Amino acid sequence: MAVSEGIFGLNHRGKITFMNSAALQMLRYDRPGQVIGQESHRFMHHRNSNGEHLSSEQCSMRKAWSEGVAVYSDSEMFKRGDGEDITVEFSANPLFDDDKLVGAVVNFSDITMRKAQEERIWHQANFDQLTGVPNRSLFIDRLTTVLDQARRNNALLALLFIDLDRFKPINDQHGHDVGDVVLQTVARRIQASLRQSDTVARIGGDEFVAILPSVESSSDARIAVKKITASIKRPMEIDGQSISVGVSIGIALFPDDGECVETLLKQADHAMYKIKSTER
Questions:
Q1: From 128, 163, 206, 257, the catalytic residue
Q2: Are 144 and 218 in the same domain?
């Protein structure tokens, strides 16, 4: 590893024996005396990359200094001296003296900025930038996952295809800025009408879908449709104007209406257009 990367040593009890200047700088300490003799897990390695607190027995570095096993992680959390957490990539290699395990040496790099950039890129690729709900790509991924679960558990699943009525005239009469606020409001209202376990996604201009896993019966889907419809049809106050929009919602059920992503989406879309045509 490069010299600019942090390096510190641990004895056979997991206490810090030395720390180089790069490590001190990354962890916001002024001098080695602030860290030497500290128990490494309690002092700096207390959480994993998901933010979950680790017990000393769960500490991955422990395997290096107590069992002689080399450890590598591409995403762990270290606590700095100022109390802030950083995301690090590290390797911990056991240290032997005449075949006797005496501790470990840990090399690490601060990858906080890199991870944040990766998360931003992932979010941009999977979420609709206007409404903040999942986009088509993430919707397909989540529907595929819940379909697999439904097959294993012999469960019923509902897919709702939600299409706004009279949305184009809003854009034409009030402008796209108002239309954008309408779409954002609709997304929030759909989410508020459903369970936390349900997924709402925007897959087109004024088209949304909702995945309702593990419904008890088709009546659960119809109840959800009624709630969404009532919520969306409430007038929206935007820039001092009262804006109203209609909605048509089609339902497709797994396994009755289809057993794959493409078929369910097609059936829900078809059901939505049948409703839209009868309401004209």
A1: 206
A2: yes
pLDDT per residue as tens digits for the range 185-200? 999 999 999 999 999 9
For residue 111, give Cα distances in angstroms to 23, 29, 49, 54, 114: 13, 18, 12, 20, 5
Q: Using CA atoms, how far apart are residues 237 and 73, in angstroms rounded to an integer?
A: 51
Q: What b/e string do you get for 74-99 counting C-beta neighbours within 10 Å, with b at 16 or more?
A: eebbbbeeeeeebbbbbbbbbbeeee
- pLDDT, tens digit, 9 for 90 and up, residues 16-38: 999 999 999 999 999 999 999 99
Whether residue 67 sits in one domain with residue 112 = yes
Residue found under tokens 């002024």: 30
pTM over 0.85: no
Say whether 135 sits in a helix, a strand or coil: coil
Q: Is the residue at 133 inside a domain? A: yes
DSSP readout, 171-216?
HHHH-HHHHHHHHHHHHHHHHHHS-TTSEEEE-SSSEEEEEEEEES
**Crossing angle of helices 112-126/136-153, nearest 10°?**
80
Let me know if 128 is a catalytic residue.
Answer: no
Contact in structure between 76 and 55 (CB atoms under 8 Å): no
**Is residue 270 in some structural domain?**
yes
Q: Indicate whether 40 belongs to any domain.
A: yes
